[in-house]
Amino acid sequence: MTTTTLGVRASATGGGRARGERRDARARASATGTPRATRASGRRDALGKVLIGGVALAMGDASARARASEEENAIRVAYDGYASTYDDLDGGAPARALGLDDLRARALGSASGDVLELAVGTGLNLPAYDLKRVTSFTAIDLSPGMLAKAKARSETLAFGNDARFIEADATALPFEDGSFDFVVDTFSLCVIEDPVAALREVRRVLRPNGRAVLIEHSKSDVGPLGAYQDLTSKPVKTMSKGCVWNQDVEALIAQSGMRVVKTQRALLGLLVVVEASPSL
Q: pTM above the 0.90 mark?
């Protein structure tokens, strides 16, 4: 009897000690670890920060898009206003005196196949094309007023009803990859806020063996003149329809992933004619 009683008492005592040890272990874990409620709260805080960050990022993107849209609309309105007098400033006798008509004729006379012209304006380049070499002609511009002038000019030059004049942004061309054999840009890269984006679009829509020809304002390679351009770039941009007249056109082309094939400078290096290939 005594043995049995001692055995039961020993068993009960051992079980009590075990339960006590488990309670002590849980208490120590609770004291030294992170409570479950605190961990859950931390996860909620982290999730909240992620959500807030995502919302802020989305709002930032929306704000940037809104600003870009406002700027694009401002350019559209401004060039609609320039349309009626644009030829007086960029064409006619002043352009002939500076040799611009000859420059256009030499640069664009080789355009062939499916041709795209960026920022066509009032169509001052149109007489320079050899239409016997052109299979199809497409022109874009942000300004409906400019496009209307260009379309009217094309009708006097036998471009035909198939010529397309489309309101579009040069940095987001509405054409499939590899749609054109020849892309033309004259004096528009300097007023595009993101010229590299426009050139990347040129590269995208060109066929592998295609060519881009640009006639652009450029920083002169005559040292003092180039320094003067750098010094006056900001006021000139304000006074000349937003034109950045000291850009490095060859460098911009390289940044876009295209390859410069040929370069010709004119007017003491203030203008440059560049032929570029979409293939490096």
A: no
